[in-house]
Amino acid sequence: MTATSDRRSVAVAYHLMQLCDSALPVGGFSFSCALESAVAQGLLRSVHDIEQYVRVVVRQSLLSDGVAALHAMRSADSIAELCRADRALMARKASVEMRTMSVRMGRKLAELGSELLPCRDIDEWLSCVVQHRAEGSYAVSQGLIFSLCGASECDLFAAVGYGTASMVLGAALRLARVTHRDTQKMLFSLSLFVDSLYDQARMLGLEQMHGFAPEMDILSSLHERGIQRMFMS
């Protein structure tokens, strides 16, 4: 390995750590993926219950958002394909709050990306979002920006899974009887679960995206009608 390639690999790893940091200003801390409703309904009574809930959320995300993100990475130079992935993904989000989460975080990430990586591809994508020619889903913004950073498909897929899990577990710390050690153990063990889904997800086309979890959709709808809320979803 040459010194140049070694420096590049360090830079890519550095960018990945930044993009997966909970401090990234895209608003992920404002959402719980309906965990708040699940806790309020008394469905999550133990650490085990929370871990199972997170697995369902992560699986749903990876087989829908994860597929869209991979497609966006592969088609980063085609605004038409980015928009197609965006439409396909948003059509599969039944909950208003889940759609709101995706587009708010997606636009913020695109705006941040245009400052960090100013180039034609990201500027054209952000323009589509601003002009309402695309919803601007978070997964598609992720796919585009990770591609521009030189990340691999595995890197991107892991980031989608990690981001979803850390978002839900961050909410769990504020809503349920769970400790920081508990959540770290869950994050660590989820790595094999995310890895096990990669071979399946990477072979799916946009029309094959799925994430059947009706209970989550019901919990999201209950949250939309709620009065006392700590999270937006």
Short description:
The protein contains eleven helices and no strands. The protein has helices at residues 3-19, 35-40, 47-62, 65-74, 79-90, 96-116, 120-130, 138-148, 153-175, 180-201, 214-224.
What features would you highlight for this structure?
about 230 residues, mainly alpha, Urease accessory protein UreF, 11 helices
**Radius of gyration over C-alpha positions, nearest whole angstrom:** 17 Å
State the CATH architecture: Orthogonal Bundle
Shape: globular
Helix content: 55-70%
Biggest β-sheet strands, sense, barrel: none
Computed structural class: mainly alpha
The number of distinct structural domains comes to 1
> Any idea what the CATH superfamily is called?
Urease accessory protein UreF
Number of helices: 11
According to CATH, what is the class?
A: Mainly Alpha
**SSE arrangement, N to C:** HHHHHHHHHHH
Strand percent estimate:
under 5%
- Tally the beta strands: 0
Give the topology:
Blueprint: H1 3-19, H2 35-40, H3 47-62, H4 65-74, H5 79-90, H6 96-116, H7 120-130, H8 138-148, H9 153-175, H10 180-201, H11 214-224
Helix pairs in contact: 3-9, 3-10, 4-5, 4-8, 4-9, 6-7, 6-8, 8-9, 9-10
